[in-house]
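Re: [help] complex structure
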Amino acid sequence: MWAYFLRRLGYTLVTLWGLTLITFVLTRVVPGDPARTAAGPQARQEQVEEVRKLYGLDKPLWVQYGVYMRNLLRGDFGKSLWSKQPVVTDIKAYFLPTLELGVFAGVLFFTLGVPLGVLSAVYRNSLLDHGSRLLSLAGVSLPVFILGLLLQLVFYKLLGWFPAGGRFDPFVSPPQHLTGLYILDSLLTGNWKALACSLHHIFLPAVTLAYGSLAVVSRMTRASLLEVFGQDYIKTARAKGLSERAVLLKHALRNAMVPILTITGLQVGSLLGGVLLVEVIFSWPGLGTYAYTAVTVLDVNAIMAITLITGIIYTGVNFLVDFLYTVVDPRIRYQ
Amino acid sequence: MKKLMVGVFLSLLIGLLVVGQGVPRERTLVIATGLQPSTLDIGVGYEAAAINVNLAVYERLVRYKPGTVEVEPELAKSWTASPDGLVWTFTLHPGIVFHDGTPCDAAAVVFSFQRAVAINLGPAWMLEPIEKVEAVDDLTVRFTLNRPYPEFLQVLANIFGTGIVSPSAVEAHATADDPWAQEWLASHMVGTGPYKFVEWVKGQHIILRRFEGYWRGWSEKKNNIEQVIIRYITEPSVQRLLLERGDVDIAMDISVDDWALLKNASGVVLVEEPSMHATYLRFNCAAGPTADVRVRKAVRAALDYQGMIDYVLQGHAVQMQGAAAIGLPCHNDELPLPKQDLDLARRLLAEAGYPNGGFTLEYVYESGHEDRRRVGEVLQASLAELGIDLKITELPWPDLWERVSASDPERTPAIVANGWWPDYADVINFLYPMYHSSQWPPVAFNIGFYKDEEVDKLLDQAQVETDPTVRCDLLKDVQALIYDDCPDIDLYHLTTRVALRDWVKGYVYSPIYTEGFFLYDMWLEK
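Output below.
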């Protein structure tokens, strides 16, 4: 099995390398002159040429790519044409808030979605099941930006329970910097005030982001469980006299888990897409806002870095899901 | 367990102490804006987003008097220029200190200009005529120019590249690869202004704190603003919500629809002023049907200007008069305002050999500019009446620039919607880059390949004319000639809209530092 995963890792690396090649070529062949945009709309031609030289954009494409890859292997993504700073510095500042929001939303939809699906399956066609169906229907049909604005209107403007945006209250001192993830740092340093402030701020954007995925996961859990409930081994388990609880948790849920994991892995992809919108609506200082600027000003190095990071996360999550299959269902063997 | 409890208690206590040190909300001014600067470096940044922090943290030798386009002293208390306009000598106020405590003397001024020129990015083009800058003594700075530069004072008052930065801060963070400490100054600021830089949490906020050692002193001021928080709120409707609940004191990006709703809100003051930002439709003067001045004038006569301002812009704009911004010194106030006149348009087209139109023009605008899209549609409808087909193309800015910066006019679209900000209050900042024939693409911004020998000659003279009256006459003549040649349609100045809570006092709109605040003169009455 380890051989399989090693091979998978190899494929992943090839995929990522392909990704660098495609993004590199795409960002260079689209119309527009990155040096001009970097130098600014009012810059004189000599200044534009200076910028072109500074960023190595005057060299042939294959030389640029070679230099890029060499630097990349050293962890250097080049300099941003927009902020004139190393892309790594920018990404450091913008990636952690996105990671925090994404993970929080992920935990939210998984830990709420699966139990909700289980309850719907167990109490099939009850009021709870219908309620959860309605909730899910709303979840998959409400676009993220409308949900976000609605939540702001209700919970900020009308009720005043949650802030309208931002990651942290500027009047409160942020937690001591350990990882850069505010929630984790507050927990590690026992800074409860900062923890409360972080949670207060992350709640609305995370709910907005998680809602659609929560709907999908809860529906999937329900369907998958119902299918398992009809299997002979469940009857056997019940015939053995096992409690319903043991039947559900030890036999049914575990067998129903494979499709749930698959759909969860896929939902991480939609989370990565949705996070960009949610960040704009909630002024969340993450990669979404950075990516938006990078694309509008044709900041080639930043675009490359963002694409690559997104690619790494996505392939990484799928890799993890493949691995988890073997954990929840030991019959699955990779050759 | 006991240890754990003590630890938790201590950390709670420390947490509370740290929080308690902060400035309370009543003495904090919170500004919401969607525009975050790409860099804080005064020698590099060249974007509207940097104006608010630049104006609060850095100071220049001279500045624009609040609310006007008049230059007044700032760090320099007086200055003289030699009769040939080549040598300028400035005397500094004594006793000015930077936020890091070091003195701001002539050497610091020299250093700042040398830095901006050496970096040669963004705003550096304005400093090109400077041949040498030197410290005569502690408080005297002398600039030697390589040509007369009549707008030099205006350039010094502009917000980009001319702020004075602490040399010791730069030297402390310089490295062999980065002698001007660009990496550090991209996210830090050390100037002499009334507010000092505290932190920039990217994507979230910039915090400024009152500088107690400010050289003008605080004792006689009403100012009670100890802290300024500039929050980056990307979504305009959220800015409105925050303003309504009083969580921000000033909102910079209120949408047109929200603006109308806020008019009736209590506790909110709305300030709307015509900006100097100009929007044009620039003709391709070198190729295609628009190479004929009669066709250009016919298009100019076809557009419904009043309808455009009233309906497309919902009244949030004023029509331009000529190619330079209304309100600038030497603006030609006698030029006519174009009006829709379809008969004139038909006559001109017939003279040009197109009695029934019968040709297609391409109109290109930059994506994101909703107003320019709708202007295109208004123009399309008007031109259809003349038998001219207008093809509207939307392009992102880099692509648009690619199309218009080609040196071959055959590739340039017939009409390009284009905007222009003045860096400083002088009409030559409009006229030279956009209408002098030396500025054809790819050099600069004469993107319609306009060339008129008389215009070139007068502009060349105005560039070095040191007598202000003579220079003004030259520039007014240039505006009249340009109006007559119609290389573009001068459309409108959009208004700048700033929404404030009524407890914010002392705000004055500034036509050149549009996005900026003279924080020193402001206070809060809560």
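The CA atoms of residues 1 and 168 of chain B lie 51 Å apart.
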